[in-house]
Write a structure and sequence with these properties.
It is built from 22 helices and no strands. By secondary structure, the chain is mainly alpha-helical. The chain has one domain. Helix 1 crosses helix 2, helix 5 runs parallel beside helix 7 and helix 8 crosses helix 18. The longest helix is centred in the middle third of the chain and has 35 residues. The protein starts with a helix and ends with a helix.
Length: 414
């Protein structure tokens, strides 16, 4: 509904401001052409196909079981495999909702079996699921790249350090809660007598590790492939992995292609609406007005970022991340660009900030997905929303670090 509303408002506003229906249609044509005809647009269907075909191969359980072996010796550390597995899974699927639905089924029952607090269990699952939108290849990064006219490859590389930093912060927070708030965490000691041999762990993780290596560090980072070529290579390797696991046939291939088409069309609609909206704001002169207000009131960098984060956090409680990017960024991008700040760094902030909203009421998409996925009478929606705030607070601290130290996002690019 948001893209429809943005598109209609933009179309009608241009018609009213310039008294020209032809101009409205001309700008709509340009918006569609700029969105769909660019070479980099191919990253969307390719990476979408890759994550769908890999998800069908069922790597989530293997990743979680391997991570569980590494963290099970840590006291009350059973929540840590969920974070580690989500980070790895995010590097393949790039979807918070997919991560939430996959790992909540595995991690939450496992934690409940060992007498962990249900609110802690679902909070960890909900909080770590947002890594799917931060660690590349993320759909939100691609959408931002089109809205801000930035390189998809640079956005992918810029998000590596922030994504790993957030995953590490989650793990430290879980250790801290287990050490100092054991009553909230709960849990019993896990026996370590049945540890999985290293050969079996390698067999479970090497295929996914190879896929990650091909897509980001082995392709985009080295410059051997463009993001489009990396997406194509990842899709091909995903087919090989699915076939090796016996999860690939012509029927599943066709279903994946159709689903890829549906998702690609939806994203194209989002990008077209955002492009039309940005052009309407430009014709209205609103970005220039914001720059004038900033100059007259002597708003410095931190005040502007404070206003941006507060706005995004508020919108995150009622809208999804893509809608927030469509509405807010066309207003702030010219202002950020005028201040001489990196639009690549700003993209990381713009993606991380609204993701916190996925964990907060009244919308909290990840929370609703986890509740629907679990279908467990012991878990109420209130438990999910009460368990997520500690993880959301950690995410806010990481966001502050990313704003204060832009080098964290630009380290790989420099």
């Amino acid at each position: 509904m948001i893209p429809i509303a943005l598109g209609l408002v933009s179309f009608i506003a241009i018609r009213i401001m310039r008294d020209s229906m032809d101009l409205s249609f001309a700008l709509l044509k340009i918006a569609i052409g700029d969105s769909a005809m660019g070479y980099t647009f191919a990253t969307i269907p390719l990476f979408t196909f890759m994550r769908l075909i890999v998800s069908r191969a069922g790597p989530g359980a293997d990743i979680y079981s391997a991570m569980n072996q590494g963290f099970r010796r840590i006291t009350r550390g059973i929540g840590m495999p969920t974070v580690g597995a989500n980070a790895v899974f995010a590097a393949v699927t790039g979807s918070s909702i997919a991560s939430a639905s996959v790992f909540s089924k595995m991690s939450v029952p496992e934690m409940l079996r060992h007498d962990y607090n249900p609110r802690f269990a679902v909070g960890v699952a909900a909080g770590s699921s947002v890594l799917g939108m931060i660690i590349p290849p993320s759909a939100m990064l691609i959408i931002y790249s089109f809205v801000a006219e930035q390189s998809v490859g640079e956005m992918f590389l810029a998000c590596v350090v922030p994504g790993l930093l957030l995953a590490a912060a989650y793990i430290v927070a879980i250790w801290f809660m287990g050490r100092f708030t054991s009553a909230f965490v709960g849990g019993t000691k896990i026996e370590t007598s049945d540890l999985m041999p290293w050969s079996k762990i390698a067999a479970k993780t090497l295929p996914i590790a190879a896929l990650i290596l091909v897509v980001v560090p082995g392709g985009i980072y080295t410059g051997w492939t463009t993001p489009v070529e990396a997406g194509a290579a990842g899709s091909l390797l995903g087919i090989v992995i699915a076939a090796a696991r016996g999860r690939f046939n012509l029927t599943s291939f066709w279903e994946t292609v159709i689903e890829t088409g549906h998702i690609t069309a939806a994203i194209l609609f989002l990008i077209t609406a955002a492009s039309m909206y940005a052009r309407m704001l430009g014709l209205a002169g609103l970005p220039n007005e914001l720059q004038t207000i900033q100059a007259e009131n002597a708003l410095d960098f931190f005040r502007i970022m404070f206003l941006l984060v507060v706005l995004m956090l508020f919108l995150g409680t009622i809208l999804d991340t893509a809608s927030i990017i469509l509405i807010v960024l066309p207003l702030f991008l010219p202002l950020i660009d005028t201040m001489g700040l990196s639009l690549v760094w700003f993209g990381i902030v713009a993606v991380v900030a609204p993701e916190i909203g996925l964990l907060t009421p009244p919308l909290g998409l990840s929370c609703f997905v986890i509740k629907a996925t679990l279908d467990n009478d012991r878990i109420k929606l209130k438990d999910v929303f009460l368990g997520a705030p500690p993880i959301a607070f950690v995410m806010l601290l990481v966001l502050i670090l990313l704003i204060r130290f832009p080098a964290l996002s630009l380290a790989i690019l420099n």
